[in-house]
Structure formats: structure tokens, C-alpha cells
Amino acid sequence: MTAAADAVSPQGSAWERWRRRLGPWAPVLVLVLLSIAIGIANDRFFSFGNLSRIADAASIPLVLGLGITFIIIMGSIDLSIEGVLSFGAVVLSLLVLNGVNDNDFGLLGVVIVLAIGAGMGFVNGAIHVGLRIPSFMATLGMWFVGVGIGNAILGGIQVRVNDELIRALALERLFGFKYQVWVALLALAGAFVIERYTRFGRYIYAIGGGEDLADLSGIKVRRIRILAFTLAGAFYGLGGVMAVAQQGSAFALIGSDRLFTTVTAVVVGGTALMGGAGGVLNTLVGALIVVVLDNGMVLMGVSPYVQQIVLGVLIVVAVAMSVDRIRTRIVK
Amino acid sequence: MSDIAIRIRESYLNRRRFLGASAAATGALALGRFARPAHAQDLPTVVNSIRSLSNPYHATWNAGGEAFAAWAGAEYVTLVTEGDSEKGVADIKAMIARTGGNMVLNVDPNDSADARPIVEACAEAGVYCVTQWNKPDDLHPWDHNPYYVSHISFSGVPAGKAMAEALFAKMGGSGGIVALGGILSNVPAIERKQGLDQALAENPNVELLDFQTANWDPNQALEITNTWLTRFGDDIKGIWAANDGMGLAALEALRAEGLAGKVPVCGIDGIQLAVEAVLAGEFSGTVAWDPFWQGSIGLSIGYHAKLGKFDPATEPPEHREFYGTGIIITADNAQEYYDNNILSSPQLDFEDIWGRVSGQIQYN
Asked: Given CB 3.0 to 4.6 Å as the disulfide criterion, which of A22, A97, A127, B110 pairs with A163?
């Protein structure tokens, strides 16, 4: 196929070769250029205080992004992020020391929430695979179920969380960075190991690259898919814990807008929505790009009206850069 | 709270099933009359129609309705739209049929457009009704004399202004502030911002360093506040937020920097956590809309009209379409409000129906 393209347009192919070589580094380049530009406009950008704040702000999008990266690599999508996160956050707030009941499960509460997240992810996967419902629809359902149950439990109130261990994630620091940043980095390390050094990690790429081939070569595609959704759910649960730590309280809408930010981060980082390419390190870069952009626009005093436009343009440009137009014959 | 919701819904569903079984409307009417306790036989049924019982705002509204019904000795019914306009209108019509028009309605229409069919159905059946928050601008109570008694709403302008003033006072009257707004196109967001702008115009020593919209979203409010701390640092002497949710998030951003209680924050809506933050000295204030008052006095106005205590047609326009009065909560009265309105149900004088009128509604 590449040979044919070469024959038709040799110039285009040279550009393509360049693009292919540079392609993986494009998000990093964007991040560096963006940072330099903002740094020139406002010298406080590179202050340690601000870099630490950027790390804080990126930690939740990163953790959520790690989960959904596995799904997107498979060529699927997971819209349940906000549902799982909200439900997890609501449950957590009622299990640990809080302003509404007498529970004080502490760390056990966190473990329970991670398990709930994984469970919701498992249901996503099982419905998607078992009933042959597109991941889009199955997870859309879980989104509404999660937020809906959260709403039904709390009835619109906001529950204050007083558990010092959880609040420490957002209030205490180690080497100048909040604990939640270190937790996010640990999650990143874990996801990286899963992606690079486990059979599961390799199979995900195989499924995203071509599910039929993967199936023919003996990969248990259905099982891997369910496992991927389960894993993603656990990451969203962790995101819920971190969100509660940050807000110091839980409410049913604590997940709002997280899906948009997360998918933007993953795509901007260079993980293709078509599947088969990208990875968790891309997601790290993508999360930083989105957060740096947000941070930079407020630092430079960009009007709120313009901010939304910039974010929208960024997504289209990022997707345009990440699409492999030679491999993709049909665009739906 | 959700127990109550389920119980009320169940009793209401049973009633509907019961109505469905007795085919003729007249039959249902007769049964309805028999079912009512003897002493309440001639009193109108008092009906609140609200969105849901699963949010604290409408749950408190409902508690107000119950308290009023107990005071009046009348039968009380709650109708819940669950966000469904058609259900809302249909349920009200069913209630009118069941009571034969011997009822009083206090409704928070699910959508502005719903107010018209509701009011028309009430006027036709001779039911005295009061609407709150939502109605089309060209529908007025005096179009349906005397049955459409009043429409009540709340203006965000005085609330936004009062909070800004409380904030400035806590800052010592000068310094820089940052402000978090709601959704750009939202009427309450626009009005509350207008109030802030008025207060700023009257206090030249206070400088608005930046205004950002966080779309009522605590997550966005937290991130924006974090970045402001980089951009303005110690220049931020106060944070104005258009609602409590965003204000509480800004407070958490301050807490992470050890600034909670040092940089005052204000909100609007009067939710429990915000009142607690006022008590803790971390919030300079919040404004409560008092849904208990809305749920009780809204009924009381229609009830007194129904009993002939006053004639709606001869009331002045500012009693027909008016802004209610938000309760301004600051350190001075927070404990009192907390004890009377959050830990227990407030005591209201249900005969004082015009006590919280603060001006006729203005249209742009």
C-alpha cells in the first residue's frame, strides 16, 4: 500500500516519512512549544509553585486517562468515566469519616471503592461483549446509572469528608508535590508495566490493530476485552478517591466534565481513536497539554469565551495529526 | 429523605390506580370526598407540584407544604414531575378532577412553557393557583383574574450585591478580589454578576482582578482558583462565587495552600456546607432562598384567596408578580439560621403572606 502511494506522489511520501518519524514526538513538541509560549507571556508559569499546581491539576485527568487508554487502544470507547467516578466518590464519602453518618472505614473504604469501580467496569465489558452491544452504548448506560444512583443516594446534598488520610492526598506534600501527584505517578508506573510487560498489554494492541487477526491467532478476545474494561473501572474508582480528596466532599455531579477532559487528553497525547496505536505515556503528555493550556489561558487572562474555542480547535487539530490517512480508507 | 419520597409517591400512585378503577370522574369525586376526614370536608385540598423529592431544595419545599397543611387542617398532596413536563401538567389536571376544583395549587413549573396550560386548567376549574420561578414573560396573573393569584421569583441582583458587600466588609473594605461566575447565558448567573458589578462600582477601593466562568461546576472552580493563586498570589484578598458549590471548591483550593479562613469566600444558595463554612469563619456569607417559605407561603397565598380573605383582582401588581426575599446569612446570624432552618424546621407566620415581597418582577 505504501509502495502504491509512493508511485503516485513521491513528494507526498517524503512528507509522510517525515511525519511518521516525527509523529510520535508531535505531542511532546506541542507541550514544549506551548510551555515556552506561555512562559514568555507570564514568567510565573515556570515558578515551582505553578509547576506543582500543574502537576496537581493533571493528576486526576492522568489517572482517568490511564484507564481509558487501554480501551481506546482496543478501538473501543468508554463513556462511563463520570458515572463510575461519581458513584465511587459518593460511596467513599459515606464509608470514611464524614459529616453524615458514623462510618470510619478509612483505607478499607478506598479498597471497596476501587473494587466497585472494577465491578462497574466488569459489567461494562460483560454487557458489551456478552450482548454484543457497542462499547459506546453499553458504557453510556453505565454513565447514567452511576450518576443516577449517586443522585438517588445523596438526594442533591454535598457530603463533607473528614477522613484525614484521604484529605492528605490533596493537602499534604512530599518533596513539594501533593500526595495525589505521587499516587498518579504510581498509577502511571503500574499502567506502563501492564502495557509493556504483560501478555494482556500486548493483546490489547493486537485487538486494536485488527480484531479478526487477533482472534484467528488464538487470543481470547472476549476475555481480554472484559478484563480491559474492568481494569479501566478500577482506575476511574481511584480517580473518584482523588476527586473526593481534592473537593473535601462528595456530590453526585463530582464527575461532571471529566469525560471530556480525559478523552481530550488521551487523543491530544496521540492515542488514535481508531485503535492499535498510542499508550499510557502518550496519555501523560496529553494530560499535561490540556492542563498547561487551561493554566496558561487563565494566567494570560484569556477571556472565558475564547477558552472554549481554543479547546475545541485543539481537539480537531490533535485528531487530524494522529489520523493515519494511508491506512484509513473509509471515514464514517 | 428518599424514604419520604418513596412513601409519598407510592401513596400517590395508589390513589391514581384507585381513580383509574372507578371509571367515571364523578364517581371518583364522590369517593374522594368520602375518603377525606370529616373536619376537612369543606376545606380545599392544598397541593404542591414540584420537580422531585430527591433534592434537598424541593424536599424542604415539601416540608413547608406539610407544615402549612397541618396549620390549616387541610388535606395535603405533593405532585412530583420528575422533570417530565407532560406528567406535571397531567397530574395537576387529574388532581383538579379528583377534588372537583376544591383545591389550591402552588407550583414550580418544570419549564416556563408549562405554566400556561397549568394556569388555564386552574382558571377553568376555579382553582386558585400560585406559580414560582418559571413562567412565560407574557403570561401574567391579572390575565386570569381572580384564580391566577401570584407569581413568585427571586432576583439574583440583590443577592450578588449583598454577598459582594459582605465579602468587602470582611476584607476591610479594600484589596483585590477574583470572581467565579455561572454559565454565561444563565439568568441567575447574569443577575448575580450584575449585583457584584454594582457593589464594585460603589466600592472603588476594591479591584476585580479577574472574572472567570466555572459553569456552576466545582471541579472547574477549583482548577481556576488554583491558577489564580499562581497568577495573583497574595494580591487575592477575597473570592466571590456565584453559588455555594463553586465557592466551597475555591475554599478547598485555598485550604491546600493554608489560606482557608485567611482569604474570605462567599457563595449563594445557602446549602448546609456553606452555612457551616460561615460558622467556621471561612465563608463571609451566603444567601438562602428558603424553600420552606416557598412551599408554605405559596400555598397560603392561594388558600387565603380561596377563603375570600382578599380579592386577588384588587391587589396591586407587586403582590401579583413579585420577587421574594433571600435570607442573607453572615457570621452575625449564621448560628441562628443553622439552628432554626437546618437543624429544625423554621417557624413561619403563615398569615403574613406579603411579608417577603421585595418588588415587582422586572422584565428586560
From this structure: A97
